[in-house]
Design brief:
Chain B: It comes from Desulfosporosinus lacus DSM 15449. The complex is a heterodimer. Chain A is mainly β. Chain A has four helices and 17 strands. The chains are: A mainly beta, B alpha/beta.
Chain lengths: 275, 549
């Protein structure tokens, strides 16, 4: 027997609130009163979920499902470290949403702020709007960012998307900012639109797939134009989730560049060729 | 008036070895037994030692702070919230200033020396030490790559050269409010700054044509001329290079007869295999130390886990960055030195690291006289100081040591001798290598013992079979007769003393003590004016001058 938990925002707070207590793991099995009393931090003051949200709970079939209604852009760390269930934000989400996530599904219907899915290990994040900087990246000083799972973004993403990523998939249908996949260790990043300066700078391994020809660093060199086998599988897999990559469909061909030659040149950037 | 009764006292300097004895502290110092009533601590069944003395640690100043900025990853998982009398802090290998003080005090250390400060950054170091509570502190002043010293060494007339050096060194010490002369890779840093590669003892260092050997002998002589309380504090050339034992032994032979403290000697006791790999040369070094009682050293023992290496030896740090690919910070301290920072992790499964670990312990076990070797981790280069209790257990418990050797890289036995060593330290020997020995090497007559007149610093430990547990959590730590730690929690927080050595007394030597030529060089090449160079006494509100001679 599952649970459906509704959190409805009373009013958008003026100050940011640290809300890492809002995860399916943490809300499961608690009654409305207990959920209302879970702590959140506003500056150095400890407050409660009930100070910001109306809480309603009902029994349902399937897994635990948490639905937040309202513009939650001031709430940081929602879904941080979640490992199962479903978390839906019917609006915007703040910094670090889904950071350190280990499993389950996190859906954001509005825009997501910076550090979305930072250090994510598993599960899936989907964003209907745009995402901020450092999607799936490593926190300052850490050497490995996202190490598993999937982040799918319908809109645009900011700078340093997938920086120091180790494993997993990030797909952005729109544009990306500078230094996409900076120091990429492995894993796959897709950006359908324009990208900023220096995509793949310092990358060691991994694959960056671009919909538009970028200005590449001189440490990337052209290999060939071909149809990679994995593309069909990736395309079909994401289409199955309702996320359609390039309009050219499954039979697209790509220009392949190797790089970053300064770091061994084992990485690749694939640039889509219109047919 | 504080009275500590029934404790089992270890006070090696006064020849007290585990005897039950009552101790009396009045006015912050140990006194003769008195009848007067006062607060009494019953230490029945407990062990009492003087407060710990760390002879070599990097806890304050420009490079430590740069490392804190460079390494946020050191902070994420290590933090302490503010409590009644303590402030909050973060950091594991490079804790913030207040946390550094609390953690040292929590281990029973009451005196710590910051081991490498360029005169130009001394004000910064003193400001940070002002915010490092509960420990008495001091700084060592870097001089081994100072261009003014090298210029002074060009003087052909030996008597004049000696006189110039004497005034130059005392001016640098007085300007920086330092405690000892620190030499790091003499000549090597300056040479690297000229892109001229590493130096051996006799390589002439541009632009002055002065060699490492000349710098070393001259500074060792000056140290004795000025009758400074501590020996010349020396980090020799070629730190960390396999085969550097040749340089270390040659340096030791050159300085035989002088008072010298060889710091983090583990990093300088490396032999080389035919293929260029690392093997232990600790037995050769220990043999030399055993034959030369004028020398002291500290271990620089490796601790497995994350560390943040930081040193004035910038060429060494560049090399480390190139080998590991880890991030690197490098700084050029004008006419004085360089410095570099590289975070690192020592792993038991890496043969090189495992061998380094064994070499440090070999030195600690093979150097027979405990008064000649001090327990350090060259914090935070070889490990954080918070690992001292773990090292004490390794020294006191051979079975535990052997069980750890089992977990290292399987080939480590081919290149080291540690598994053949059976020695176990006694509590008295531990008291020597952590307190009485360093206090003696530093010339601190009021530290490291519990006799009348000594500073009222002591630690009360609950005996425990696991020596790591025992030394990690003292029951009481008392500083200047005040209880600062009880059951692992800091009970009050106040600033410690700043220990300085001023060979010519309190007279401020900032102006007029440089020769006209050097003053002109200063004006031409330093980024600040001579008037702003010396650290004012206002920066040391609780200063204690340790007498020279």
């Amino acid at each position: 027997m599952g649970e459906l938990i509704h959190l409805t925002l009373k009013a958008e707070p003026a100050l940011p609130v640290e809300a890492e207590s809002i995860t399916p793991d943490n809300l499961r099995g608690k009654n409305e009163e207990k959920i209302k009393n879970l702590p959140v931090w506003c500056g150095n003051a400890q407050e409660k979920i009930g100070d910001y949200f109306e809480v309603e709970k009902e029994q349902s079939a399937g897994e635990t499902r948490v639905v937040l209604t309202g513009e939650c852009a001031q709430f940081k760390r929602i879904g941080q470290g979640m490992s199962f269930g479903e978390l839906v934000i019917e609006g915007a989400a703040g910094f670090h949403t889904g950071a350190l996530m280990r499993g389950g599904s996190l859906q954001i219907k509005g825009d997501a702020a910076d550090w979305l899915g930072a250090h994510m290990e598993g599960g899936r994040i989907t964003v209907a709007g745009n995402a901020g900087h450092f999607v799936g990246a490593a926190y300052r000083g850490k050497t490995q960012g996202m190490s598993g799972g999937m982040i799918l973004i319908e809109g645009n993403a900011g700078q340093m998307t997938g920086s120091r990523m180790r494993r997993g998939l990030i797909a952005v249908k729109g544009n990306c900012g500078d230094a996409l996949g900076f120091k990429l260790l492995a894993g796959t990043i897709f950006a359908g639109g324009r990208t900023g300066r220096h995509p793949g700078a310092n990358m060691l391994r991994g694959t960056i797939i671009l919909g538009e020809q970028p200005e590449l660093l001189s440490s990337f060199y052209y290999n060939c134009t071909y149809q990679p086998v994995f593309w069909n599988m990736l395309y079909a897999e994401l289409a199955g989730c309702g996320f359609f990559l390039l309009p050219g469909g499954q039979d697209a061909s790509f220009k392949r560049y190797s790089g970053d030659a300064l770091n061994g040149g084992k990485g690749e950037i694939l640039v889509w060729q219109s047919t | 008036m504080l009275k500590i009764i029934n404790g089992q006292v270890y006070d090696p300097k006064n020849g007290i070895n585990g005897v039950s004895k009552d101790l009396y502290i009045d006015g912050g110092r140990f006194v003769q037994p008195v009848q007067e009533a006062g607060e009494t601590i019953d230490a029945g069944g407990c062990i009492i030692m003087p407060g710990g003395v760390d002879i070599h640690s990097h806890i304050a100043g420009a490079k430590v702070n740069s490392a804190r900025i460079m390494c946020p990853e050191d902070h994420y998982d290590h933090f302490r919230a503010a409590a009644d009398c303590t402030r909050s802090g973060v950091g594991h290998t490079i804790p913030t200033t207040f946390l550094t003080g609390y953690e040292y005090a929590g281990l029973g250390y009451t005196t710590v020396f910051e081991a490498a400060v360029p005169p130009l950054e001394a004000r910064h170091a003193h400001e940070e030490l002002e915010d490092t509570p509960l420990v008495d502190t001091g700084i060592y002043t870097l001089m081994g790559n100072n261009t003014m010293i090298m210029k002074a060494l060009q003087e052909k007339d030996a008597a004049k050269r000696r006189e110039t050096l004497r005034s130059l060194v005392s001016w640098l010490l007085a300007s920086s409010k330092g405690y000892a002369i620190k030499v790091v890779n003499p000549g090597g840093v300056e040479s690297w700054k000229w892109s001229a590669g590493t130096v051996d003892l006799d390589t002439p260092v541009q632009p002055f044509g002065i060699s490492s050997r000349q710098i070393l002998t001259a500074l060792a002589e000056t140290n004795e001329d000025l009758k400074l309380p501590h020996a010349l504090h020396l980090h020799t050339n070629h730190l960390g290079d396999p085969g550097n034992v040749r340089t270390t032994l040659e340096t030791m032979k050159t300085l035989t007869g002088h008072r010298v403290h060889f710091t983090h000697l583990q990093f300088h006791s490396y032999g080389i295999t035919p293929k260029g790999g690392l093997k232990s040369a600790a037995p050769e070094i220990a043999e030399f130390m055993n034959a030369h009682p004028e020398f002291t050293c500290d271990a620089g023992q490796i601790v497995f886990g994350p560390v943040t290496t930081m040193t004035a030896d910038s060429p060494m740090q560049f090399h480390l960055h190139e080998t590991t690919g880890n991030k690197w910070g490098s700084f050029d301290v004008e006419m004085e030195t360089g410095s570099g920072i590289v975070p690192l992790r020592y792993r038991p499964s890496v043969l090189f690291n495992a061998s380094q670990w064994c070499i440090g312990l070999e030195l600690l076990l093979l150097i027979k006289n405990p008064w000649q070797i001090v327990l350090t981790t060259d914090h935070p280069n070889a490990g954080p100081f918070t690992a001292y209790p773990q090292i004490i257990r390794l020294l006191m418990d051979a079975d535990y040591r052997n069980s750890v050797i089992e977990t290292l890289h399987p080939k480590v036995g081919h290149y080291t001798h540690l598994k053949d060593l059976k020695r176990e330290y006694t509590l008295e020997e531990i008291a020597i290598i952590t307190r009485s020995g360093p206090a003696k090497a530093l010339g601190l007559s009021n530290k490291g013992h519990l006799g009348p007149g000594a500073d009222g610093d002591l630690v009360i430990y609950q005996p425990h079979k696991d020596k790591e547990k025992m030394f990690a959590s003292p029951v009481y730590v008392i500083k200047d007769g005040r209880i600062i730690v009880r059951d692992g929690i800091a009970r009050q927080s106040f600033g410690g003393k700043r220990l300085v050595a001023l060979p010519y007394g309190l007279k401020d030597l900032a102006d007029g003590s440089l020769s006209q030529e050097l003053a002109q060089d200063f004006a031409d090449y330093y980024s600040i004016s001579l008037r702003n160079f010396a650290v004012q006494y206002d920066y040391l509100p609780r200063m204690e001058v340790i007498s020279c001679g």
